[in-house]
Structure formats: C-alpha cells, structure tokens
Amino acid sequence: MSTVVVKRIRQGNNSTLSEIYIDDFLVCYGLEDAVRDVKIKSETAIPTGVYPLAPNTYGAMNARYRRRFPAVHKGMVEIRDIPNYSYVYIHIGNNFGDTAGCLLVGNSWELVEGDYELRQSKKAYLSLYKRLVTMMASETVFLEISNGVT
Questions:
Q1: Cα(94)–Cα(92) distance, rounded to whole angstroms?
Q2: Vertex 143, ends 139 and 147: CA angle to 5°?
Q3: Beta strand 88-92 pairing with 103-106
Q4: What pLDDT, on a 0 to 100 scale, did the predictor assign at position 150?
Q5: Over the stretch 61-107, which tens digit does the pLDDT of each residue have?
C-alpha cells in the first residue's frame, strides 16, 4: 500500500494550491477549486480525507487522453469514494476554470490576479501518471488530502 499526499498550501479567490508528495518527496503542484463549506458542483475542492486511486477506462476524458497519449495511457487516474462526488480525476490544466472539481497538476505555479495557476501541466501530468500507473499495477494506492491553506 502506498499513499500520495496532497498538502494544500494556499487559497486564492477561486483556487486552492497544493504540493503533491510521494514518499515524502515533492513531485509536483496541484490545483483545485476553492475550498467551500457547501459543495457547488464542479466548483468545490475535494473534501479532506483519504481516497483510493484506481484506473478508469471509460468515458469521454479517457477517450481524449487515449488519443492524446497513445503510448502511455492506460485509463484516467480516478480518485474514488469521495462522498457526493463522481468521476474525479487527476489531469492536465492550468487554472480553476479547468478543474471541474478534479485535481490538476503542474511543475510550477504563479499567482495571477488573485488566483493560482499551474505551469508545465502536461510535463508534470505525464511524469506523475507514469509513476501512479506503475504503483497501481502492483499495490493499492491512496490519495490523502490535507488542509493547511493560508
């Protein structure tokens, strides 16, 4: 069993920036929608907690990524068992408008007009994706989200 840790570090007007760790090593940054007390569909960060990761091999996003990355794609990495959420993925994107309630990844970040934006998202995604697929093939993998935003 392995755990990928998402440590939320900053809150923008509509965005939440995090650091993503594997084995206590910072592998990339994450971006979600704003943390809210009441869920707004596709506009709310994932609740804190521990969730299993598993490949999802159906759906429109899976088909898009299979066409975009045919050499490596083995299904979307889905964050499962989140109460009142479904089809929550780790994927490419730069700002809160790209999240749709999911977790975006990037190699760096910037604060732009009060919100956080990720940079080098595709590069970060492919690196993290390959690691996660390898891990999920041999063991159960969990995602732990903690809130320490400032």
A1: 7
A2: 160
A3: parallel
A4: 56
A5: 999 999 999 999 999 999 999 998 899 999 999 999 999 999 999 99
Give dist(CA 109, CA 103) in Å, integer.
14
Interatomic CA distance for residues 144 and 107, integer angstroms: 20
And the tokens for 78? Answer: 């889905």
String of DSSP letters for 30-47 = EEEE---SS--TTSSPPP
Tell me how far apart the terminal alpha carbons of the chain are, to the nearest angstrom: 31
Nearest residue to 17 (alpha-carbon basis) of 27, 28, 25: 28
Kindly give the residue spans of alpha helices, DSSP state H, lying in the chain. 60-68, 121-138
**Interacting residues of 105 by C-beta distance below 8 A, sequence separation 6+:** 20, 28, 29, 30, 31, 90, 91, 92, 118, 121, 124, 125, 128
- β-pair partners for 5: 21, 144
Handedness of CA 47, 43, 90, 52 (dihedral sign): positive
> Tokens at residue 25, please?
């090593």
